[in-house]
From TrEMBL:
<feature type="transmembrane region" description="Helical">
    <location>
        <begin position="420"/>
        <end position="441"/>
    </location>
</feature>
<keyword id="KW-1133">Transmembrane helix</keyword>
<feature type="transmembrane region" description="Helical">
    <location>
        <begin position="448"/>
        <end position="473"/>
    </location>
</feature>
<feature type="transmembrane region" description="Helical">
    <location>
        <begin position="636"/>
        <end position="656"/>
    </location>
</feature>
<feature type="transmembrane region" description="Helical">
    <location>
        <begin position="485"/>
        <end position="506"/>
    </location>
</feature>
<protein>
    <submittedName>
        <fullName>Periplasmic binding protein-like II</fullName>
    </submittedName>
</protein>
<keyword id="KW-0812">Transmembrane</keyword>
<feature type="transmembrane region" description="Helical">
    <location>
        <begin position="604"/>
        <end position="624"/>
    </location>
</feature>
<keyword id="KW-0472">Membrane</keyword>
<feature type="transmembrane region" description="Helical">
    <location>
        <begin position="568"/>
        <end position="592"/>
    </location>
</feature>
<feature type="transmembrane region" description="Helical">
    <location>
        <begin position="527"/>
        <end position="548"/>
    </location>
</feature>
Amino acid sequence: MKYYKVIILLVHLLFIYGSYSIKLNSIAISYSNEDQFFTSIVNDFNEYAKANKLDIELDIDVHSSNDTLNLSFEYRKLLKELFNNESSKYDIFFYDVTYTNLYISNFLELNNELPNEYFIWYSTGIGSETCVNNGKWIGFPININYRFLYTNMDLLNKHGQKMPETWDEMINTTKYILEKERDEGNTDLIGYNGFIPDYETNLSSVEEFVYSFRENEDSAFPDYHDNTASKALTKLKQIKDEISSSEIFRANDEETIKRLDSGKAIFLKFWDYPKVNSVYNKTILLGNKKGVSGTSIGGYNMSINKRIPQSHKESTIETFKYIASRKLQKKYLMENHSISGINNLYTDKEVCQIINCDLINSIQSFYHRYDEYYYGLYREMIYKYLYNNGSLEETLHVINGINTFSFVDMNSSDTSTSGYVIFIIVVSSITLIVLSLSLLCNYRLNMFFSFFSTTSWLSILFGNIVIMLSIYPEYNEITSLKCKFKYIILSCGVALNALPVFHVLLTKYATSNKCLEWIKKNKYSFFFIYYIIDLILYGVLLLIDFNVKEYISLTESNFKYCSMNNVIGHIVLCTLVFTKLLLYFGSTILLYLKWNDENSKMEIRLITSDIILNYILIIMLIIVYSLKYTDYKTPFLLNSILIILLALSNYLLLYCSKIVKIYKNKDKIEQMNIRYSLNVMRQSHCHSHSHSQSSSREHSGNVIINTNSFNGCAEPKGMMSKIIQYHYNAGNDTIIENANFSQVETMTSKSFTQPPNE
């Protein structure tokens, strides 16, 4: 009995396990309450799954309404919320093909998930335009829709008119029929609806009209700068004014469907619709020339949520394969006349017995990627032009400019002059700096460049070059990476320029401060630590995205500009500025201390002038970067001019001043070299002699030496008095208070005398 119960329990558990199925959830949008397309798909799959014992059940949440505008907005809002929350609630998404680019990053890449035959089927159709992102398939067009022209053949035949092949022919035919029908009292008849309602449809409806004005069937979409777009919009307004009206042009789907049912229109533009009055003949839309047409792509895509649980993935892919299969697509094409994304179905004899394959194959379509800002401004300008007598020139300028952004380009007529001038100045300046480096290699001129070492000069001069190179990211289109490198290059150049100046000034100041003494004695270690800190900051900056914002103008050129909205990014930028200003501030203090030093008077004055200019120019640069602009040329010119002045002021004051001195003393160089060599020898000897005497007297107690420095890092007492005392002490390293040793002081002072400034 016990075993019997166990067997029953096991059988029961096996039954439960065997009957368990994975439930998949999908979500779809339908613009008609009567559309049962998605419900049919789900029912067909569930029957297929049951027949093939797949243990998968598909459920669908269909959002449908005849209120197209609100439905579209609410569905996009829902999907955005789902994706932002990284929801795995739905496994499969059906969505309007227009909005693919809004969702594309949230879908599973299919290239390695499906058999190759699927990609062969869909790659020859519109799927390669609507479902491929960077070479990766993220879905398939499950149901396509196009706009067609519905022509009332009863009225054309009644009045002896032939089917028009161009827009001009349609205008003439419509005007003739309307006049005759109104003479007979038929005032409810309209000529042409235009189909530019108050929602997203109007964007693609106008664009397909412009597309129909291209030169030939293979021509690309006309540029709004071209005369083609001007002709198209002029013709569209002519159609509205002569054979239609603003009210008819703006009529919604329901109004158009009523006329498709009643036959009270000569021509109607609308989506593929199965239930139309028999008086209408469906053809492709017309064009400006015979054989040229144009329609935008509508319909639905199907994609898989990339965040689905791993336990659902295999079942979801199996479901996806069935719905996208050629077999099911053929079934819906034949039974429901649903246009498929598999092009070779329209060469299938069985299909073409039921479907007008010639009509589908003759469609000349284009795909419009939705952009909310573009749509809003496009709609505003088209409505202003069509319904409020807006200027055609302004309309074309704004539409073309919505996705056209100007930038500094030497090939552009707008900025070629300023771009070339700045480019030539920078290249010329860099060339001059590089050529002048040869002076450092001439040993006869060493005395003129003795204030800085050769490596310090190289760092200063190379820093000037790098500073000027920070202008080049301003050329051509602005990107997030260029925004980062603009600041990095400028910061690097300023560091290369300012660091050697600070260190050299520090070495000429006597101090017992351990921190400063270590910096004096470990030049390259100090440089290395400083640059490592900068490199870390540069690395963090590279990891942070700069926002590239767009400035749109109705009258001027649109442009992009850099904007940092990240808190960490602001901190990094402020830190980079602070570390450079810290060098300048330290140099300023040291210059004040050495201001009355007769031995280095000219150098101190030149470096002081340079640092003051640097302060002013860097503050002006910060202001220039902070201001808002209404054109792209002004910030480029201001930034370029300030950066060039920053680099050239350094070069002229620190380096070229030596070249001027060389030129003035070109006839005395040999004599000056001899005096310079003797002074170097005397300086070396006196350093040694004075050091030994000072040491012995210090230990014997016969002299009191007051070191003009800070007695450690943490002793601020009397700091200002010491700084002022040092400033007025003509820069000597020590103040010898015992008058008996004034002779030593005099000798030491003379021993540091440099060659005269002749």
